[in-house]
Specification:
Layout (H helix, E strand, L loop, with lengths): L3 E5 L5 E2 L13 E5 L32 E4 L2 H6 L3 E6 L2 E2 L4 E2 L10 H10 L4 E5 L3 H13 L3 E6 L7 E2 L7 E6 L3 H12 L4 E3 L6 H7 L1 H10 L5 E5 L4 H16 L8 E7 L4 H7 L37 H7 L3 E5 L1 H15 L5 H15 L8 E6 L4 H4 L6 E2 L4 E3 L4 H8 L2
Helix pairs in contact: 2-5, 5-7, 6-7, 10-11
C-alpha cells in the first residue's frame, strides 16, 4: 500500500491518495500508515514525525511545538502532572513558531502533499490564523497561495518575511463561513486547488503532531486534553493521533478525554453536544451578527465538521469528552493567570482553553494527579515582536458579486 493509504469512514473502502479529499460527503477520510509505531526521522522540526504525515518528502520549513511540564500554572491550579504544548514563539522554551499559532503545523504538510499530487495554486480560507500560517510557509518556500479572509480580520494577516508577489489576498464582506464558500469556488477553477479544510488529512495529521510531541515528553498518553475550538478539527486530530499511539502500544491503552472549549457567545458545538444532538440544529448556530460580541471571533465557525462520520461528535463520544462555553470574564481571568504563571503572553483562543481547564479543576472533573495536556494553540506574539517586525498583507480585492469579473485578473499570479 506504500507508506500510507486513506480509509473512508463511511464505506470502509481504502483509497490511494491523489490529494483525495472525500469518498462520501458524510464522512471524513482517515490516514492509515504502514508504520504502526511512532518512529522519529532524523529531520528538523515537525518533519521528524514524517512517518505519520501523508507525504513522501519534506520541505525545508516547518517548526514543531514545544511541550514542557508546567510549574507555575500547575502550582496555581494544584495539578501535579500538567504539561503544556506551546504552539507559538517562546524561544526560552524551545518554541519557534513565528506566526504564533498551531496552524503552522498544518501548512507545511499541506503544501508538501499538494506538490506531490500535481500542481495548482493552493487556496486557503481563513479567519486569520490559518491564513497567516500558510502565508508564512508560502513566503518561506517561494510557493503561490491565495488567501480568502473576512475583511474585518485582515489585521491578523501578517508574516515575518518580506511579502512576496506570489501571494494573493481576497477579502470578503462577511464572516469566516463566507470566506470558506468563496474559497471553495476559487478552488474549483482551473489552475487552483482548494486545501480542503477538515477533509484534508495533511491538515489533521499536522495538528496531530501536538499529541505526538507531547507523548515523547510525557512518556504516556495524557488522561485529559484541553483545547479551544472553532471548527473542532484540532480535537479530531488529537483523537486520531491518540488512536495511532494506542495501536503503537508503548504509551498506554487509555484514550485521553477531550475537553473542548468555545466562546459562549458563539458555541454551536457546545449547544449541540450539551443537548445530546447528533447534528447541529439551526437553533444551535448564532446569527453571524453575534460574532462581534465574542471574546475571540477566530473561533466562530458556523458549519463545523460535527456530524460527519469521524467528526467532532464521534471524537467526543469515543473519548467521553466534554465541551465548555466560556464567557469573556472567565477568558480574561484565565489569560492573566497563565501569563503571570508561565511568563509568556498567549492569544485569546488559547485563553479559552485555559479557562476550561480552570473550570474543570474547580468542579473536580480532573484529579490532581491526572496527567493533563493543555494545548496553547497560539502565543508569544509580544515576545515575537522583540525579535521580528511583522509585515501586514493587504487585500488585492474586496470580493463582491459585482466584482467577480475582476477576480480572475487579480488571481493571475
Amino acid at each position: 500500500m506504500g507508506r500510507y493509504q486513506l480509509r473512508c469512514l463511511h464505506c470502509n473502502q481504502t483509497l490511494a491518495d491523489h490529494y483525495t479529499l472525500r469518498c462520501h460527503d458524510d464522512a471524513l477520510l482517515r490516514t492509515e500508515y504502514q508504520e504502526k509505531r511512532l518512529v522519529m526521522r532524523d529531520l528538523p522540526g515537525l518533519w521528524k514525525f514524517q512517518e505519520w504525515l501523508p507525504v513522501s518528502g519534506s520541505m525545508e520549513v516547518g517548526d514543531a511545538p514545544a511541550t514542557y511540564r508546567s510549574e507555575g500554572l500547575a502550582r496555581e491550579l494544584g495539578l501535579h502532572n500538567l504539561y503544556i504544548s506551546f504552539n507559538g514563539y517562546f524561544p526560552e522554551r524551545g518554541a519557534f513558531i513565528k506566526t504564533c499559532s498551531f496552524k503552522e503545523l498544518e501548512s507545511p504538510p499541506t503544501f508538501q502533499r499538494s506538490a506531490e499530487h500535481g500542481n495548482g495554486t493552493l487556496v486557503i480560507a481563513s479567519a486569520g490564523n490559518t491564513g497567516r500560517a500558510f502565508a508564512e510557509t508560502a513566503s518561506d518556500a517561494g510557493l503561490p497561495l491565495v488567501v480568502v479572509i473576512p475583511e474585518s480580520n485582515m489585521y491578523r494577516l501578517w508574516i515575518t518575511n518580506d511579502i512576496p508577489d506570489s501571494i494573493r489576498v481576497i477579502a470578503v464582506d462577511g464572516d469566516y463561513y463566507d470566506a470558506i464558500m468563496l474559497g471553495d469556488r476559487i478552488g474549483q477553477m482551473d489552475g487552483f486547488r482548494s486545501e480542503g479544510g477538515a477533509k484534508n488529512v495533511a491538515r489533521r495529521d499536522g495538528m496531530g503532531i501536538v499529541m505526538l510531541d507531547a507523548v515523547l515528553c510525557m512518556k504516556t498518553l495524557p488522561d485529559h486534553y484541553f483545547q479551544a475550538i472553532g471548527s473542532g478539527t484540532g480535537g479530531i486530530a488529537a483523537w486520531e493521533a491518540s488512536l495511532r499511539l494506542i495501536e503503537d502500544g508503548r504509551f498506554g491503552d487509555r484514550m485521553p478525554q477531550l475537553h473542548l472549549a468555545q466562546d459562549s457567545v458563539f458555541a454551536p458545538i457546545f449547544n449541540a453536544w450539551s443537548h445530546n444532538r447528533s447534528t447541529i440544529a439551526p437553533e444551535d448556530v448564532p446569527d453571524k451578527s453575534q460574532i462581534r460580541g465574542t471574546y475571540t471571533d477566530i473561533l466562530s465557525n458556523r458549519n463545523p465538521p460535527y456530524a460527519v462520520k469521524g467528526g467532532v461528535a464521534d471524537a467526543l463520544a469515543d473519548t467521553a469528552g466534554q465541551v465548555y462555553a466560556i464567557d469573556t470574564g472567565e477568558a480574561r481571568d484565565a489569560k492573566r493567570l497563565f501569563e503571570d504563571a508561565e511568563s509568556i503572553d498567549i492569544l485569546r483562543p488559547a485563553a479559552i482553553a485555559v479557562a476550561a481547564l480552570c473550570r474543570a479543576v474547580g468542579s473536580s472533573s480532573i484529579d490532581t494527579d491526572d496527567t493533563v495536556l493543555l494545548n496553547i494553540t497560539g502565543g508569544g506574539l509580544s515576545r515575537l515582536k522583540e525579535d521580528y517586525a511583522p509585515n501586514h498583507l493587504s487585500a488585492d480585492l474586496l470580493a463582491t458579486d459585482e466584482k467577480m469579473d475582476e477576480l480572475m485578473e487579480v488571481l493571475l499570479l
